Amino acid sequence: MTGTTHPDVPSGITVRRWGAENGDGLVIDVDTHGGPLVHGIGVEPPADASRANGPTWAYVIEDDGVTLIDPGHLGSIDFLADGLNVLGMKPSDVDRMVVTHGHWDHDGGVAEFADASGAEFWAHELWAAYSPYSYGQLLRADKSPLRIEMTRIGERMRDTGPRTYGGSVTKSSGNGEPGNPERKPGGGRDNYEAMRSSMKVDRGLVDGFRHGAIEYLHTPGHWPDEMTIKLGNLIFTGDHVLPEITPHPSMAYSHPTDLSASLPDRYKNPGDVWGLMAYLKSLHRVCQLGKGLTVMPAHRLFNRNQFRMTDERRAVETIAFHLERCDALVRAIEDGYTDLELATRELFSYRPLTGSYHLMSAASETISHVELLEDTGDMVVHDVEDGDGVRLELTGSRNYRDVIGDLIPD
Ligand SMILES: [Zn+2]
How close is the Cα of 103 to the center of ligand 1, in Å? Predict the structure, then answer.
C-alpha cells in the first residue's frame, strides 16, 4: 500500500509493516500493558487455496521462549518467514507452535514449519486423536440419515455444477525476493491429509493448561479440538470468534467407532465436542471470561483496509445470530421446505449455492441447526423409506428459544 493513505490504527496496535487491503503481509505489535511482547502476521494463503477469508493471522508471543499460534496453510511458509523477518526473527527463534484447531488454513503449515524451525508442536489432545481422519472419512463413517442425504445432494450437484472447492488458482503476487514472497501451490488436500496423519504432537493440551502467562481453554464446536488461548486481556480465538463473519458450526458427528474406544472419558460424549450446541456453549464460556477482552482472531483482523477490532461481545452476537437462524429454519419448515436441500436453499437464499462445495457447506450448517432442534425436542427427522432423502417435521414446541436464550448473558 505504499503511496496510499493508511487507515486509522486502533489503540493497542502498532503497525510494523503495512500489507494488502485484506491484511495479507501486514505485521503488527499488540500492546499487553507491560506483559509479554505479542506480534501478529497476516499470512497469505498459497496459490491454490481460497482467499475468501483473507490471510490466516499467525501470532507470536514472547513469554518463556517464543510461541507461534497457527502457522497457516501448507505452502504459506515463505509468507510466515517473511513476517517473522519483519519482526527481526527467524523460524529457528520459535520454540513451539500451537494450533487453534485442525483446519487446513491453521495447521496445514505445521510440518514444514517444524522442519524449518525445529519448534515443538503443541495442539489440543483431540487434534492427534482426529488427525488420521479426513473430512471425507468422517462423513462416510457416520451413518446419520442427514449426512447420507447431504452426501447425496453433493454428489448430484457435482455432476452438474462447477467445482469450486479450494478456490481458484490466482497468479503469483510476489517476485520471490525477500519482503515479496511468491505465491506457490500449497500441495492440495491430499498432501495436507497425508501430512496431518503423520505429524506427531509434542504436547497434547487439555482445558485449563497454563504455560507462563498463557492459558489454554478448550472451546469445541466449530471443530472438536478448537482452543481459545488467553493472555491477559487478549483472547486468541482461532475460528471460534471472528469479526465480520460467523464461523461455521460443525455437525453433531458421532466419534468413529475405532476412535471412540481409545478416547479419554472426558470426550466420550460426542455432543460435548461436536455440533452447534457444543459451539454455542463454548461461545457462552468466552463471553464469561471477562469484560473488555480484545479478540485476536485467525481471520479478518484487518479487512477492506480497516482494522476490525472486536471484544467478547462478538461471542454474544454470534449466539444471537444462531438463535435467529434457528427461527429462520423453523419458518422455512412451516412454509413447506421440509426437504434438506430445499430448506438449505431457503435458509441461504441470499447466496446462489451454485457449486457442490458451497451447497455442501450450507447443507452442513443447516444440519447443525436441525440437530440442535432435534436435541431440544422441537424437530423430528424422518428417514424417507424409498431412499429419497429426509423429511423435516416440527413438533410444535419452541424449546430452543429458551435453551439458546439462556446462553446469552443479560
Ligand atoms: Zn476452522
Answer: 5
Q: What is the pLDDT of residues 180-202, one digit of tens each?
A: 787 777 777 889 999 999 999 99
389: confidence class by pLDDT, cuts 50, 70, 90:
confident
For residue 396, how far is its CA from the centre of ligand 1 (angstroms)?
A: 34
CA of 316 to the centre of ligand 1 (A): 19
CB atoms within 10 A of CB 308: 19
- List the alpha helices (DSSP H) in 144-275: 145-160, 188-198, 257-260
295 sits in which H/E element:
strand 294-297
**What's the pLDDT at 166?**
41
The rounded Å distance from CA 56 to ligand 1 centre is: 10
- Residue 384 Cα to ligand 1 middle (Å): 32
Q: Give the tens place of pLDDT for each residue, 332-357.
A: 999 999 999 999 999 999 988 888 88
Fold classification of 144-161+320-405 (topology level): Arc Repressor Mutant, subunit A (1.10.10)
CATH 1.10.10: which residues of the chain? 144-161+320-405
Long-range contacts of 131-137 (CB under 8 A, 24+ apart): 131/102, 131/196, 131/197, 131/199, 132/196, 132/197, 133/256, 133/259, 134/193, 137/256
> What is the whole-number distance in angstroms between the Cα of residue 203 and the centre of ligand 1?
21
Residue 1 predicted with pLDDT over 70: no
Please identify every residue whose CB atom is under 5 Å from ligand 1, which is an ion.
103, 239
The CA 222 to ligand 1 mean position distance, Å, reads 7
Rounded to an integer, what distance in angstroms lies between the CA atom of residue 401 and that of residue 398? 6
Homologous superfamily of domain range 13-131+169-311? Ribonuclease Z/Hydroxyacylglutathione hydrolase-like (3.60.15.10)
Ligand 1 geometric centre to CA of 115 (Å) = 24
Q: How far is the CA of 409 from the centre of ligand 1 (A)?
A: 25
- What's the whole-model pTM score? 0.93
